[in-house]
């Protein structure tokens, strides 16, 4: 039985391995603060989690394998619990290791961001921010907020990851993002997050201008039967919403499907074939002015479950990130409507 399996109670819930007594959080926290954990120790923990092999982690840090092995022993002696299982195929974090690595990533990310921010402030550049967003808020709220903030901080450096909510949630927990506009996906514990719901999304069906359905005054679910589609992978929220809407009207879900998560490929398929492309309305509207596309007038609106602003609890935003967060708050809660779809 592995260390992780040993850490489960009879009902399957995670707990400390048998034989290890739980003690007060405060005692352990103070002990770690007073121990000899060094920056090189923290870097090794992250490298081992990334590579899952001791020799690869050692190479990434420009260490010899014996030196990395000795350092891991030092860390486990300091912490007082096993942090990795040594397996034939490499190493795997224990429950204790996962807890420490998660916090370690936050510490390292904060240190890196602090260094960048200090350098930016010294140069009068305004700092750096890393945010994530599902597609439509990136088109609407994020762009408008960046424009607003740039008037006050003209040299603000902003990186924006446009991804699905599951990817963004993982990057938030790994401290690779300051905050995100997304959903908390099913299967991810919501407890670590500070979530402010913005509202539901509205989507549409985009087709080429001379598509067979483009001239209809109203397009029903029955009109969508046995058509070509370009859809996101099965299980994505927007695809599920389309399938649920069609089933509700007794129409089988699409079967003639090209599957892609690429907006570019989606537009190419919709522009050159009879494929129907579900998109968030703000995204679709960006491509109407050229006259190559039309939005079908649907009998029934297509909505997707709500999204919101997400931060990690207990992790303060940098001054630059706080300014951009407040600007996005003003965009999404200050009267402007944001409609998104993944």
- CATH topology label of the largest domain: Arc Repressor Mutant, subunit A
The CATH homology group name of the largest domain: Winged helix-like DNA-binding domain superfamily/Winged helix DNA-binding domain
Helix content: 40-55%
The major sheet is characterized as: 7 strands, mixed
pLDDT < 50 runs, ≥5 residues: 1-25, 336-341
Mass-distribution shape: elongated
Give the SSE string: HHHHHEEHEHEHEEEHEHEHEEH
Tally of strands: 11
Taken together, the total number of domains comes to 3
The pLDDT mean sits at: 83
Proportion of beta-strand residues? 15-25%
Structural class: alpha/beta
What would CATH call the class of the largest domain?
Mainly Alpha
Architecture overview:
It is a single chain. It is built from 12 helices and 11 strands. Residues 1-25 and 336-341 have low confidence and may be disordered. With 342 residues, the protein is α/β, with parallel strands linked by helices. Helix 3 packs across helix 4, helix 4 packs across helix 5 and helix 7 (135-150) crosses helix 12. The two termini are 40 Å apart. The radius of gyration is 25 Å and the shape is elongated. Strands 3, 4, 5, 6, 9, 10 and 11 form a 7-stranded mixed beta sheet that branches. A two-stranded antiparallel ribbon has the order 1-2. It has 3 domains: 3-107, Orthogonal Bundle (Arc Repressor Mutant, subunit A), CATH 1.10.10; 125-199 and 306-333, D-Maltodextrin-Binding Protein, domain 2 (3-Layer(aba) Sandwich); 202-303, D-Maltodextrin-Binding Protein, domain 2 (3-Layer(aba) Sandwich).
